[in-house]
Amino acid sequence: MTDNSHPSVWAKGLVRRFGTKVAVDGVDLSIGRGEFYGLLGPNGAGKTTTIKMIVGLLRPTAGTAGINSLNTWRQPLEVKRKIGVLPEEFNLYERLTGAELLDFTSAIHRLPREAAVQRRRELLKLLDLEDAASDLVADYSRGMRKKLALAAAVIHAPPVLFLDEPFEGVDAVSARLIRGLLQQYTARGATIVFSSHVMDLVERLCTRIGIMVHGKLVVEATPAELRQQYGVASVEDAFLEVVGAGDMGEGLEWLGASSG
Amino acid sequence: MVGRLVWLKWRLLVNGVRADRQRAFGLPIVTIGVAAIGFWLAARYGKTAGEMPAKAAGDFTLWVMLLAWLTWTTLPVLLFPLDETLDPARFSLAPMSRSQLMAGLTAAGLVTPTIVVPVLVLATNVGVFSGPLTALMALLAGALILLHLIVGGQTFTALVSLVLRSRRGRDLAVVIVSSLGLLGFALQQTIATAIGEYGLAGAVDVYSLSSWWWALPPVAAQQAVVAAAAGSWGQAFLALAVSAGWLLAIISVWNRLLLRLVTTPESSPLRSNKRVRPTLADRPGWSTTLIVARKELLFYVRDPRLRMVWTGAVIFLGVIVATLLIGTTQLSDIQRAGWLPLIGPMVVIFIGLPVALNQFGWERNAASFLFALPVAPRTLLTGKNLAAGTALFAETLTLSIILAWVSGGWETLPMVPPLALTAIGCQLAIGNIVSVLAPLRLPDMGTDLFAQATEQGCLAITAQMASFFVIGLLMTPPAAAYVLVVEFGRNLNPVVVSVASLAYGAIIYSIGLWIGARVLRKRIPEMVAMVQTV
Fold first, then answer.
1. Closest CA to B520 of B441, B442, B433, B440
2. How much is the pLDDT for A1?
3. A99 contacts in chain B (CB < 8 Å)
4. What's the mean per-residue pLDDT of chain B?
5. Which residues of B touch A140 (CB under 8 A)?
6. Nearest Cβ partner of B524 from A56, A97, A138?
7. B375 touches chain A (CB under 8 A)
8. Distance (Å) from the C-alpha of residue A198 to the closest C-alpha of chain B?
9. Which ipTM did the prediction report?
10. What is the Cα–Cα distance from B482 to B196, expressed in whole angstroms?
11. Distance (Å, whole) CA B445 – CA B432
12. What is the rounded distance in angstroms from the CA atom of residue B213 to the CA atom of residue B139?
C-alpha cells in the first residue's frame, strides 16, 4: 500500500564524513510518487554515498532518510521490502546461476513460488539472458551482470527503485529495452531514483534532476527548467555550468606534440 | 627501472601500514617475530652443523638448503594470499622490457620482513665451514641461493597467478594447494621417521643428497661450499656453474610465464553448456530460512575455498592414512583407541571454524546485495547456521564412522550424534557473535588455506583464536561427561548424558543466536563496510 501523504523518497540533513572528508554535506531530498529523479554530479560528488544512506547500506553521520512514512534507520526491513536497488558496484553472488540469483531474491522478498518462477522467466527473456540462465554469474560479462542485477532489483515490483549507473556496459539493444521498461514502470506510479553520467539519457528519462557538487545538492529542477535557468540548449550544458567544468584552452600543450 | 620497482614495493608496504591501523599494529609484531625466528633458526643451523662430523655436516647443509628453497617458494602462496602489490600483470602496459621487469621484481623481492630469515641462515652458512676461501665460496653460493629463493618464489607465484586467472583455474588451484599441503605433511612425516630411526646425522647420511646435487638447484650451490670445504675446488666451481645454469633455466621459465601473464587477459569463458539446471524454486522449501541455507550449501560446493574448508576432514583422514602407512609410532597408537569416533566432532569443529566464526566474511562483495534485501537478522543467521550445522553434522558422522572402522570402537558411535550436535550448537553460538562483531574480510582471489586478507592484521585473528578457546571452554562440561562415560566404566548413564548435553547445547546456541541477531540488527552498514573488498 502506498502512502500518498508522504514523499516516496525523502532525506533530511544527510551528512556523511569519512575521517575529515565530508562526502555528503546536509542533503535534503523529497521525491514524489511516479517521479523519475536523476541524481547527477561529477565523480566523488556524493551521489552513490547518498543513495547508500537512503537504502540503509551506509550509516549517515547525521540526518536521516526514508521511503514514504518509513524511516530507513528505524524500520530497515520495511523499507527494504519497498525498494529495489541496482548499486554501482553490482556485487552479485558469483557462484549462483542467474536463475538461482533471481529465485533467491524472490524468496527473500516472500514472493509466492509460482509468481517467482513466472517473473524470473519473463525478466530473463526480456533482458536476453534466457540462454545464460543456468550459467554461474561468475561467467557473465559486465553487461549481463548489470542486466541480471536490474532483474533482481525489479522482480518484486518495488514501488521505489534506486539505479546507480544502470546503463553502464549494457549494449544498445538492451539499453533501449531497459529504457522502455523503466518508463513503463514510472508510468504505473513507481518512483525511480537514477544516477548516471550519460546526460542524453538523463534528459530523455528524468522528470526532475538534482545536481550534487562536493557533497551538496546545489540544484533541483526539471530538465526544461534547468535549460531555461542556465540559458543553454541541453541538460549536459547546464550540468557543466553548475559543476564549473574546467577550461581546456590552456595548458597541456605538450599533449599530442610528441611524434613518437 | 629496477630502483623504481624497489621503491614502489617499499611505498606500497609503507602506505599499507599508514592506511590500516591493524596492519600498523601487526607489522612490527610480525617483523620482530620473524627476526626472532630467523635468529633462532640460524643459531640452530650453525650449532647442529658444527656438532656433526664433517661429512654429515655437509649432507645436513644440503638438506637445509633444499628444504629452505621448497618452503620459501611454496609456503607464502599456500598460507597467505598472493602478493598482488607487484602483480606483473599490472605492468603489462608499462614501457619496460621483461628483463627489466624480472630484475625489478627480483630486487623488490628483498623488500619484505621475512627476507631476514634466509639472510641470517645464509650468513651463518659462511661460518659453518672453516677457511677464508671456503667462506668466500659460501658468500658466493649464499648470494646464488638467495637468488634461487626469490626467483623460485616469483616463478611459482607467476605460475599460480596464471592458473588463478580463470574461474576454472581458481577451482583447480585449491585442489593443487591441498595436494601440496598433503605432500608437505608426508615429507615432514618421512623426515621425522628417518630422524627417529637413524638420528639426524645418520638420516642425512642414509638419505644423502651429495650424489643428487646436480639435479637440485639450491643444493648445487651449497654443494659448491661443501666441496670447497673438502678442498675439491674443481667440483666446487662445477657445482656453482650448475646452480647458476639452473637459475638461468628457472629464469627462462619465469620469463615465459610472465609473457603469458602480461599478454593474456583474465579469462572468464562463458560456458557453452546449455544444460538447464534445476533452480532454487524447482526444489522443495521456499521459506527465507531454507532459501538462505540452500544458498549457503550451494556455495559450500561451488566456492573453491569453501570447498577447501569442508574438505578439511578429508585431509585429516588423508593425514591419518598417511601416518598409518608411514608408520609414525606416536600417531599409529591411536589406531587401537576405542574412543576414536568421539574425536570426529572435535576435528570437524576445528575444520568448520573458518565458516562458523566468519559467516558474513564469506559473503565478500555480495554483502551489499544481501543486506539490501529485507531479510531479518535472526532469519539470516538461522539459515546460515542451518547450512553450517548440516555440513558439520554430515562430516562428523562420516568421519566418526570411518574412525570407528579404523579403531573398531563401534560401541562409542551412538554417542557421536548428541555430542556432535552439542559441539555444533556451542560453535555456532560463539560463531554468531564473533561473525557480527569481528568479521574477517576475505580476498576474492588467492590460494591461502584460511582465505585470509592481509589487511586484517592480527587483531581479528586474535579474536578468532580467543573464540576457539571459548568454544573449547563451553565444550568442557559435556566433553567431561562423555569422558566419564567412556573412560570410567560408564558411571554415568549415556542416555542421560546425551539428553543433558543436547539441552546444554540448545541453551548455549539460543543465547548465541539471540545476541548475534541483536548485534547484527544494529550493525548492518558496518558489516557491509567490513567484509567488502571494493
1. B433
2. 47
3. 277, 279
4. 83
5. 270
6. A56
7. yes
8. 23
9. 0.89
10. 35
11. 25
12. 18
Contact by Cβ (8 Å): A61, A17: yes
A-B contacts at Cβ under 8 angstroms? 121
Q: Can you tell me the distance from the alpha carbon of A69 to that of B88, in angstroms, rounded to the nearest whole number?
A: 53
| Nearest-neighbour CA in chain B from A207: distance (Å) | 26
CA B498, B503, B507, B510: dihedral to nearest 10 degrees? 90
Which amino acid is it at A2? T
Mean pLDDT along residues B402-421? 87
For testing contact with chain B, the best of A21, A52, A91, A92 (most B CBs within 10 A):
A91
Query: pLDDT for B462-474, tens place per residue?
Result: 777 788 889 999 9
- Listed residue (A135, A204, A134) closest to A175, CA to CA: A204
Q: DSSP readout, B133-192?
A: HHHHHHHHHHHHHHHHHHHHHHHHHHHHHHHHTSHHHHHHHHHHHHHHHHHHHHHHHHHH
CB B449 within 8 A of CB B79: yes
Lowest mean pLDDT among A185-189, B176-180, B455-459: B455-459
**Distance (Å, whole) CA A100 – CA B291:** 10
Query: Which helix (DSSP H) or strand (DSSP E) does residue B128 occupy?
Result: helix B116-128
Dist. CA B423–CA B389, nearest whole Å: 10
What is the length of chain A? 260
Block residue for cell numbers 546444554: B504
